[in-house]
Amino acid sequence: MFATPDAAKLIELAASLNLRLSHRDAELFLPVIVDALRELDTFVQSRADENAPPRLFPDRGPGHRPSPSEDRYQAWLWKCDIGGKDTGLLAGKTVGFKDHISVAGIPQVFTSQVLEGFIPDVDATIVSRVLAAGGKVVGKQMMMGFMGDYGKPLNPHNLGRATGGSSSGSAAALAAREVDISFGGDQGGSIRLPAAYCGILGLKPTFGLVSHFAVGFAAEPSVDHVGPMARTVPDLAAALQAVAGYDDNDPRQRRGIPDSIDALSDLDGGIRGLRIGILEEGFAEPIEPGVKDGVLAAISILEKLGAEVRKISIPEHAQVDPVYAALVFEGARAIYDVGFFGIGSKAHYPTSIITAIDRMWRENGDLMPPRTKLNHLIAELSRRNYHGAVYAKAHNVRQAYVAAFDRALTKVDALIMPTVRNIAPEVEPVPTDPTAAMEANLRRNWILMPNSYNLKPTNYTGHPALAVPCGKVDGMPISLQLVGKYLADPLLLRIAYAYQQAIDWDAMTGTD
């Protein structure tokens, strides 16, 4: 059943939309509104088939919330046991998913206590493809930053150091060797940042290469990616090959996305003769000396393996931050307004997820952390001041930034730089004073955070970017980042694999 306003409420609603109604106007509007709502209610209550994508392994148990003894690093929201065929690219591999990725029948909370008990009824496309490839789905992993911090995963290298966000549970579980592969989300470095801090591999694929169906994060859709994370390059390559390719249900995919991608057959092809460009802007200050030295040492190893190394400059790399912010502030606000999976696409819309998130926003929006409220206020003021011009311009100038990277990538096969310019910082205690706690939360704004300096450019341009562990400083991992041409994800993996084989990988990536 639906709720209808009286005349006074209708006048108030109209005013919130900048529409003016008199009491008499409202009385005339109401019968028509009730008739329209009655029709909509009849439709939404009907039993018409919504043609949900088929579900593999439909007979799946409910799983369980892990106890503290099962979850030493606070990385898991839920444990389960689904699939695991004897054949396929991922046969014998355990796979976890960041909690913004829906697994039918398994609870999903998006870091919000308000959603406690919500269970989606649809599998994300990447979940279906993992299961089809023989992977065993073993649980949902903690994420940070949506409606609040449901919990903070611990860094297995040092419990007092940050894991990064927002795919923090995925990175922690991988570093602790509790899972073979995980899938995270990357809107401004959210795969690569925790990969760097936790000493594992994380791939932000070419935009659209991996389906985003039933993956939600309430950010600007054109910077949003989903991709694999793993401890070894072969596992990462197998995960990408298993899930990559065109999907009718993903409106973000554009012309040119292939049906599949081969990330494995040339993995051990070596890098002799490949041209690698050291991106000068990627080493900009402030950068910790140990990080700079460690990445340069890794580049020297690649050079010894036969790569041709040269310096290269892309000034636009250092200019992305304000453009990215202009896009993401209003983009995230628009998703809040129109619905979790946007509008206008001829694709399947996962109703259960959309309605659960919308109810959470409408009824419990005040539970958003201060930084999220701040972003919504900035976005609304931007829209009211510039009437959409900020958002439009941020989209329209994108091609110039894409072209700048494309020009550089005609001169080299891949770019290299630090993933982040620091090691994982110490975890800051939450202030007990409410004002100080709010100020600290406002400073942790992912749209504006400086440690994403080398990460956000490829979210904006859509080029593939791979975080690769390349050493340690004071016992904490450091990481290099490779960036390539569109759909050159397999080439980045090939470079990373050559590096993995050339060093004592287990010693470098271990947590002991």
Structural overview:
The N and C termini lie far apart (about 60 Å). Helices cover about 35% and strands about 15% of the residues. An 11-stranded mixed β-sheet has the order 1-3-2-4-6-5-10-11-9-7-8, sandwiched between helices. Strand 10 and strand 11 form a beta hairpin. It contains 16 helices and 11 strands. The chain is an alpha/beta fold and about 500 residues long. It has 2 domains: about 5-45, no CATH class; about 75-245 and about 260-510, Amidase signature (AS) enzymes, CATH 3.90.1300.10.
Short description:
The protein has 16 helices and eleven strands. By secondary structure, the chain is of the alpha/beta class.
Annotate the secondary structure layout.
Blueprint (H helix, E strand, L loop, with lengths): L6 H10 L6 H23 L30 E8 L10 E5 L26 H8 L3 E6 L26 H8 L5 E6 L5 H7 L2 E4 L20 E6 L2 H11 L31 E5 L9 H16 L3 E5 L7 H19 L12 H14 L5 H17 L2 H8 L1 H14 L2 E5 L15 H10 L12 H6 L3 E9 L2 E9 L4 H14 L2 H5 L3
Parallel strand pairs: 2-3, 2-4, 7-8, 7-9
Antiparallel strand pairs: 1-3, 4-6, 5-6, 5-10, 9-11, 10-11
Helix pairs in contact: 1-2, 4-5, 6-15, 8-10, 8-11, 10-13
Report the CATH architecture of the largest domain. Alpha-Beta Complex
> Biggest β-sheet: count, sense, barrel?
11 strands, mixed
**Which overall shape is indicated by the principal axes computed on the Cα atoms?**
globular
What's the helix-strand series?
HHEEHEHEHEEHEHEHHHHHEHHEEHH
Helical content band = 25-40%
| Main CATH class of the largest domain | Alpha Beta
Q: Cα-atom Rg, whole angstroms? A: 23 Å
Q: What is the CATH superfamily of the largest domain?
A: Amidase signature (AS) domain
Helix-strand makeup class: alpha/beta
How many helices? The count is 16
Low-pLDDT segments? none
In total, how many domains does the architecture comprise? 2
Q: Strand order of the main beta sheet, please?
A: 1-3-2-4-6-5-10-11-9-7-8
CATH level-3 fold name of the largest domain: Amidase signature (AS) enzymes
